[in-house]
Amino acid sequence: MIRKLTYGLAAFCLTAVLVSGHTSYAWADEQRGPGLKNGVPISQNDRQTETKDQDSKVTEEAETALANAGIGTEAEGNGEDGVEDEAAKAAKEALKANFPRLQTTVMIGDSNWSQPFVNDAWITNNGEGFHGMSTFLTNIVGNVLYRTYTSSTGWSPWVLNGQQTTNYPNDVNIEAVQMRFSGYVNNQFDIYYTAKLDDGSTMGWAKNGTTTGTMGTGHYITGFRMAFYAKNSAFPYSTEKPLISAVPDGITQVEGGLRYMNGDGSAFTGWAWAGNERYYFVDSNPVTGWQYIDGFKYYFDETGRMLKDLEPVMGAKGPFLISINKQMNTMTVFAKDGNNGFIIPVKSFLTSTGPDTPLGTYQTPEKYRWRDMNHGIYTQYATRIWKGFLIHSILYSRPNGMTLDSSTYNYLSIAESAGCIRLLSGDAKWVYDHCALGTTVTIYNSVVPGPYERPAIEQIIPDSQNWDPTDPNIVH
Predict the structure, then answer these.
(1) Which of 370, 412, 377 lies closest to 392, judged by CA?
(2) Chain-wide mean pLDDT for the chain?
(3) Could you tell me if 318 and 346 are in contact, meaning their C-beta atoms sit under 8 angstroms apart?
């Protein structure tokens, strides 16, 4: 059940991924933020001479980010006489071609949404507050995640890639925001963001999941701005005081251990993140070991960090249950916890599904080392779910691991299958090796990826690469 992809289709799908449940948008022409460029006020003369369009400006910023990061320069042990090797060239070209584009809309009241604001524009509502937020990440592989805070409700759940945060009523204004990248975009860029408050205060810039805005002061956000800079490059603007609150909000080190205090100074119980690492705190102290939380059984290491792959802890001996969230293109493999059922999330995989992927519960009847799917398009490590629907690897032109279609790797989860469940080759092999025939497979829809966050492609490959870097059969 395969649809041969084209790069054009994959690029188009990038602009529409994971949009669900949105109310109507006022899709006005894209605008830049008023009076500022890269965080610096623009003079009247600058405004008169600034005639380049947004795409040209983005290109300039991309070149600056590339230069700041040193992309394409000779790496230790690679290249001779200052000549770029092929890997460095590929990395440079990939970054140029995959420069992030962030488009944000905010709820401005009465369930109405603002015009879209693009990249580093100041997001405003004529001096009024915001009641919801939605940010799309396009033109690059990976996720943008974000959540919002109000004193009356606390933090909203994390959402990603165009999903809406909690939509608050007109008299409840967003007071603080956190944002972060995951996957390839996170490996290339840091995301920074800042806020203006209703009293005129402008915050310092927060970074990679930390908090900007205010807590417990009675004030709220009336302006919000974000920017991204290449990893390891200097950020030129102030990062001091990104949040006005009684105490710093977030995870801190106290006497060699982690603590989490709410910004209003109260003890904290719940999930918390440091970048993309996840923790659970009870009365501001991190839990460790096995813990039952929200109906699942998780494992936390000695520092309190939640492990997202439990195979090193409990092995890979089944039986397992395979749970596939079609809407979020996420597969979770569960192990059984005695009489409690399959509630231990062993690991999760990124998938590609399609409109024809069936919902329901099935038991796997057959497996195939290689499978001719559709007139010479092959997959490996295929496990049949039901009828013509299989769990299988990304696509090859022959039953040979050196004939990969690289687009099916780079755009996994973005481009659709014709109904099968597509995985990276290494992940498909894990299912093939460890999930016996008769394994239960449940396919469902939900805006929540699962007990773990949605995985992402960590490193894209060049168009010319004909092998999957996750395939354990390929020596590289």
Answers:
(1) 370
(2) 82
(3) no
Residue type, 18: L
If we measure between CA atoms, which residue out of 379, 374, 372, 356 comes closest to residue 443? Answer: 356
State the pLDDT confidence band at 96, using cuts at 50, 70 and 90.
Answer: low
d(CA 466, CA 352): 19
Residue 16 has pLDDT above 80, yes or no: no
> Distance between CA atoms of 173 and 165, rounded to whole angstroms?
13
